[in-house]
Amino acid sequence: MNTSQGFGFPRPSTDPATVARTEELPAEPVTLADDAELDLSVDEAAARVEQTLAALDAELVGLASVKRRVREIASLLQVDRARERFGLTSSRPTLHMSFTGGPGTGKTTVAMRMASILHALGYIRAPRVHVVTRDDLVGQFIGHTAPKTKEALARAAGGVLFIDEAYYLFRPENERDYGQEVIEILLTEMEDERGDLVVVFAGYPDRMARFFSANPGLSSRVPHHIEFKDYDHAELVQIADLMVAAENFRFDEEARGVFSEYLTRRMERPNFSNARSVRNAVERCRLRQARRLVGLNRPLRKEDLVTLTAEDVRGSSLFADDEGAAV
Ligand SMILES: Nc1ncnc2c1ncn2[C@@H]1O[C@H](COP(=O)(O)OP(=O)(O)OP(=O)(O)O)[C@@H](O)[C@H]1O
Ligand SMILES: [Mg+2]
């Protein structure tokens, strides 16, 4: 990275000789003078972060408070880098996090974006998220847990370790449970100031709160708690439109209305999983569209292949009761 492009250095002269010399500068920038000025807006890393944040805004519907928190963390790291340039030493910010929210509220998706931001700002070595659950960490027999957990940590090193449904690590009813061993190993790793691993504990809010209050040592190493709220109906419709467009499909006008009605019904059913349910429903619409198109027995136009019709949506079992009425 050519740090002379901004972030602290005076802009390089346009004189070719000076430019050549500037490019030979060592990668480590010199400490800035006390009266130097640092323009955060010309930092290359900041530009990459801005791009990721803009994509987060554009590609993910709603999530206002999540987006705000992600921005805050990015600012924290940007200022930390700026302080470093002036030789102001401080401890590395602790960035272990918890992501709490219902199913399909975007936790895993945001973790990936967060990894890109942390990487752009030099906090982790790779924009990578290693997703694990209890079974990836806890062994079946005595002596198996530590190597398993250490292997997961090794795979996540330099990136983000995302522990889904983290509360399954803790089983207070069974005091011999190996999950406790995992928590202890994680704690040691998380306390390592020089470590370049960010641990994200993810799960449903109520169980997560219990998990943290039962493990205060862990809780105190997790300063960032980010809450993912359930989406409302209007947001789910918008998510459906985004998903459909991303796959080069579109709802025709009637289909869009029927899909909105589908969502109203689906939200009241058991196991409703926010954006994940929307994705599954869109997949099933595609399946019905394919069946319908093959059954047409006529040459197809691009328009046919792109369009999801009301019929493709109404095929859902949630509309089954209406069939008699519709005829
Ligand atoms: N705000 C959003 N806008 C657009 N798409 C979204 C949004 N939130 C989630 N999605 C999409 O919904 C799907 C589920 O999201 P994700 O897997 O991130 O949720 P999750 O909270 O991790 O769910 P789970 O708890 O079930 O693991 C993904 O395909 C994701 O792209
Ligand atoms: Mg997930």
Automatic annotation (TrEMBL):
Database matches in InterPro entries: AAA+_ATPase, AAA_lid_6, ATPase_AAA_core, CbxX/CfqX_mono, CbxX/CfxQ, CbxX/CfxQ_RuBisCO_ESX, P-loop_NTPase
AAA+ ATPase domain: residues covered: 93-232
Domain of life: Bacteria
Entry-linked Pfam families: AAA (PF00004), AAA_lid_6 (PF17866)
Positions of the UniProt region annotated as Disordered: 1-20
Protein's UniProt keywords contain Ribosomal protein: no
SUPFAM superfamilies tied to this protein: P-loop containing nucleoside triphosphate hydrolases (SSF52540)
Key words, A-Z: ATP-binding, Nucleotide-binding
Gene3D superfamilies, per the entry: 1.10.8.60, P-loop containing nucleotide triphosphate hydrolases
Family statement: Belongs to the CbxX/CfxQ family.
Listed name of the protein: CbbX protein
Organism field: Nocardioides aquiterrae
